[in-house]
Each structure stands twice: as C-alpha cells, then as structure tokens.
Amino acid sequence: DAAAPRARSRAPLGWVGLLTGVIAAIAVLIYAGAAHDLSTTGVALHIPWLLFGLGYAASEFTVVHIEFRRDAHSVSLNEIPLVVALVFLSPGHLLAAHLIGAGAVLVLHRRQAILKFVFNMSHFALADCVAIVVFHALLGGPVRIGPSLWAAAVVASVAAASVSVITVSVVIWIHQKRVTLSQLRAVAGVALVG
C-alpha cells in the first residue's frame, strides 16, 4: 500500500512539530518567568536594537554547514551579536533583534520551509532566553568592565550554544530515527568554538 510509506515519512514531521512546540513553550516560560523583568545592564551607550538585527542577519549569512547523512546542522556566528547585545540591550530587544534579523534571512534568502523556520525561531528564542538568564545571574548587578563581565558573557554564550546543539541534534535524530552521539560531539565541538 503506497499510503503506508507516506504515513511513515510524515511521522517525523509530527515529532518535529511537537518538539518545536515544547521548545517554544519553554522559551516563553523562561522569558515570562525570569528574563522579562531583567533590565539592560546600565551601560550609558545606547545602540538601537535594529542594528543588532542587522548583526544577527549578517551572522546567518556566514554559516558553517555540518552534514550527517541526509541532514545538516548549520552553525552561525550569532555569538558575536549575542555577546554584545547581552550588554547593551534589554531582553525583549535582544529577542526581537535576533528573531527579526535571523528570521528575515531564513525566509528571504534561504527560503526555509515553514516547520524548519518555526523550529529555528523557537530554538533561537530558547537559546537567547537561557543566555540572558545566565548572563544576568553571573553578572549580579551593573556592568563593570573586567573579568566578571567577560566570564558572564562567555558562559552565557556557551549556554546558548549548548541549547542550540542539543535542540538541533534532537531534531536530526528524529529525522534519522536514531541517536548518534559522535554526531553530537562533532556539532558541539564546532558550535562551542564560536
């Protein structure tokens, strides 16, 4: 029966949709519960969030593609605008800059399918929310240029990269219908170098 193979090939899409919904829900919960009320770090210099949107868009143009069989993981350089945005933007503006800047590239340049696009937006939001919470927790107050700021920014970007590696690896495993830990190590190595 020809309908059976089609039903089996659609099954991963249902799981990807469910995973995407879970990721988006966790991002919303973290933002509403912990990140929303955090303010900017008190830096006197004001940089419009739209400039960060352009930075995130540029980072989506400079990606490294890691292929595993029929699936690929793309690693961008979005840690650069993330680290700077953690210092200069409010959590809401950071999220808006990332989702609008990267989203525009994914829609207009890469022409991603809707499910892949929604997944990417969800995992970007979750990674950003984790980075915001980690950064502010480690900073513990206003920005002071020095080792505590650098450490907070590095740990926050590593936390964000880890969230991205895990979420993208899980979606690849869903498509491959198997868990490949060597793939996770390779993707994590490339992502954490950023």
Walk me through the structure.
Helix 1 (3-35) runs antiparallel to helix 6 (147-176) and helix 2 (49-61) runs antiparallel to helix 3 (79-88). A hairpin with a 2-residue loop joins strand 1 and strand 2. The longest helix is centred in the N-terminal third of the chain and has 33 residues, at 3-35. It contains 7 helices and 2 strands; from the N terminus they run ααββααααα. The relative contact order is 0.15. It has helices at residues 3-35, 49-61, 79-88, 91-109, 114-139, 147-176, 181-193, and strands at 64-68, 71-75. A two-stranded antiparallel sheet has the order 1-2. It starts with a helix and ends with a helix. It is mainly α and 194 residues long.
Ranges where pLDDT stays below 50 over 5 or more residues in a row are 1-8
Main beta sheet: 2 strands, antiparallel
The beta-strand count equals 2
Category from helices, strands and their pairing: mainly alpha
Report the portion of residues in β strands: 5-15%
- Strand arrangement in the largest pleated sheet: 1-2
Integer average pLDDT: 79
The helix fraction, in percent, is over 70%
